[in-house]
Amino acid sequence: MNTNRRTFFMTLAASGSVLATSAHAQAKADEKDPQSVALGYVADATKTDTKKYPKYAAGQVCTNCALYQGKASDAWGGCPLFAGKQVAGKGWCSAWAKKG
């Protein structure tokens, strides 16, 4: 009976960590967060304020940035500048750097 109790609690702990990881991985960067505002992040690169960010050029999106941690085909992916949150693949921020 002691083994069943141990197994139950181990399974419960593992399930809890999987759920926490899933919820954490799904958090998306919000354009209104202080970090996003500081970097000029937009989820749609075509809406970048080119007067404020003249460095932006058409075609620059998160999926072709050196910092993007997802695949080029992913709609959302990780970025070390937005720890714990995902950025839009079609997004842009002022830290964009060409993959190379």
Kindly estimate the percentage of residues that lie in beta strands according to DSSP.
5-15%
Q: H/E element string?
A: HHEE
Largest sheet, described in full?
A: 2 strands, antiparallel
If helices are DSSP runs of H or I spanning 4 or more residues, what is the number of helices?
2
Low-pLDDT runs: 17-24
Proportion in helices: 25-40%
What structural class results from the helix and strand content?
A: mainly alpha
- Counted beta strands: 2
**Oligomerization status of the protein chains:** single chain
Radius of gyration: 19 Å
The rough form would be described as elongated
Distance between the termini: 58 Å
Mean pLDDT: 86
Strand order of the largest sheet: 1-2
Topology overview:
Blueprint: H1 2-25, H2 34-39, E1 76-78, E2 86-88
Antiparallel strand pairs: 1-2
Describe the structure.
- This protein has 100 residues and is mainly α.
- Helix content is 30%, strand content 6%.
- It has helices at 2-25, 34-39; strands at 76-78, 86-88.
- Strands 1-2 form a two-stranded antiparallel ribbon.
- Residues 17-24 have low confidence and may be disordered.
Tag the structure with descriptive keywords:
two-stranded antiparallel ribbon, mainly alpha, 30% helix, 100 residues, single chain, 2 helices, elongated, 2 strands
